[in-house]
Design brief:
- Keywords: Hydrolase, Metal-binding, Nuclease, Nucleus.
- This is DDE Tnp4 domain-containing protein.
- GO terms for molecular function: hydrolase activity; metal ion binding; nuclease activity.
- The chain is built from 15 helices and 5 strands.
- The chain is of the alpha/beta class.
- It has a 5-stranded mixed beta sheet with strand order 3-2-1-4-5.
- A hairpin with a 5-residue loop joins strand 2 (181-188) and strand 3 (194-202).
- The protein is elongated, with a radius of gyration of 26 Å.
- The N and C termini lie far apart (99 Å).
- Mean pLDDT is 83; it is low at 20-31 and 314-333.
């Protein structure tokens, strides 16, 4: 480049120095529009599933310190906005919706945020997803539902659809309805709280096999958790897991089945409300398998927080009944000791 004089060259150098100075001193600010100010209380809750107060004072403190530890280059997303991005994904299941939302971030950034926040909420599972410390009260609450004694939880499974994971083991994730999924085991209480969750089994794995390999089964066998679970005919009948009588022959067995259906319906309702609050669970999750499992567990943690703070969505019908499913899933794994215990249980209580 030619300069007509030494002064022109000096001016050029000074201009470049000023440019670099402005770059080095510019503020690291993203173009965010504050959802807390923009949305009304109802609009905010509809989009993020929690009130502004709970997001700021309950959810953010759970993960804020860990999010601050993450090193971010360029223009970092503040922890509160990372939390809102993840909550928006859980309530919509769409990366595209979030990228067009108030918080202007790219789709890859949204994906990384959802992965990070989901993992952090997974770490809180033992704190929020657990059996009540007062099992006697739980038994009384279950008894008030269908006059079924000794119950501490209702167990069932639900399939969370996913995209084809690819690889040599992809077909293991194809369930009996011919779509790819994660088979998730849920145990709930009388107030529709989630007490236990197993969220890392492929869709082709049978319900009973998931329970047989679970930590919950070991704890019940060892008496660490004292009580009875109610499951449908997809499970093997055990002393601590009672299933319905497939072909009742006496009035007592019919009464037992009626009480069983009425009491176990809590887990059907729990799964329905859980998916209703977090629609991402009903859509094909396109994240990798590890992140998908973390998302499922993270939403169970958030669901229990919802219930503990009275944030629930009532639903009238979740599309199926326990009776219908028993007729379809006539695959009960028989256990002589369990069947004998059930016969004596029916004689004693029904």
């Amino acid at each position: 480049m030619d300069y007509s004089s030494e002064d022109d060259f000096d001016n050029y150098i000074q201009e470049r120095i000023n440019v670099q100075r402005r770059i080095s001193t510019r503020k690291v600010i993203r173009d965010f529009q504050n959802p807390f100010d923009y949305y009304s209380a109802n609009e905010f809750k509809s989009r993020y599933r929690f009130s502004k107060d709970i997001v700021l004072n309950i959810l953010l403190p759970l993960i804020n310190a860990d999010l601050l530890k993450v090193t971010s280059r360029g223009l970092p997303v503040p922890p509160i906005y990372q939390l809102l991005v993840a909550l928006r994904f859980y309530s919509s299941g769409s990366f595209q919706i979030i990228t067009g939302d108030l918080i202007k971030v790219s789709q890859p950034t949204v994906s990384r945020i959802v992965k990070r926040v989901s993992y952090l909420f997974c770490l809180k599972m033992q704190r929020f997803v657990k059996f009540s410390s007062n099992l006697e009260t739980i038994k009384e609450q279950f008894y008030s539902i269908g006059s079924f004694p000794g119950i501490i939880g209702a167990i069932d499974r639900t399939h969370i659809p996913i995209q084809n994971p690819g690889g040599s083991y992809a077909e293991v994730f194809r369930n009996r309805k011919k779509y790819f999924s994660i088979n998730v085991q849920i145990v709930c209480g009388p107030d529709l709280q989630i007490y236990d969750i197993v969220a890392d089994r492929p869709g082709s794995v049978h319900d009973n096999r998931i329970f047989q390999a679970s930590t919950l089964k070991r704890k019940m066998e060892q008496g660490i958790i004292d009580g009875i679970l109610l499951g449908d005919s997809g499970y093997g009948c055990q002393k601590y897991l009672l299933t319905p009588v497939l072909q009742p022959e006496t009035v007592s067995e019919e009464n037992y089945n009626k009480a069983h259906i009425k009491t176990r319906n809590t887990v059907e309702r729990t799964i329905g409300v859980w998916k209703r609050i977090f629609p991402c669970l009903s859509k094909k999750l396109a994240t990798n398998l590890t992140t998908t499992c973390h998302i499922i567990v993270a939403t169970s943690v958030l669901y229990n927080i919802c219930r503990s703070h009275g944030i629930v969505e009532e639903i009238d019908d979740i599309g199926y009944t326990t009776t219908t499913r028993q007729n379809i899933r006539n695959t009960q794994a028989y256990n002589r000791e369990g069947l004998l215990f059930r016969r004596l249980f029916i004689t004693r209580h029904f």
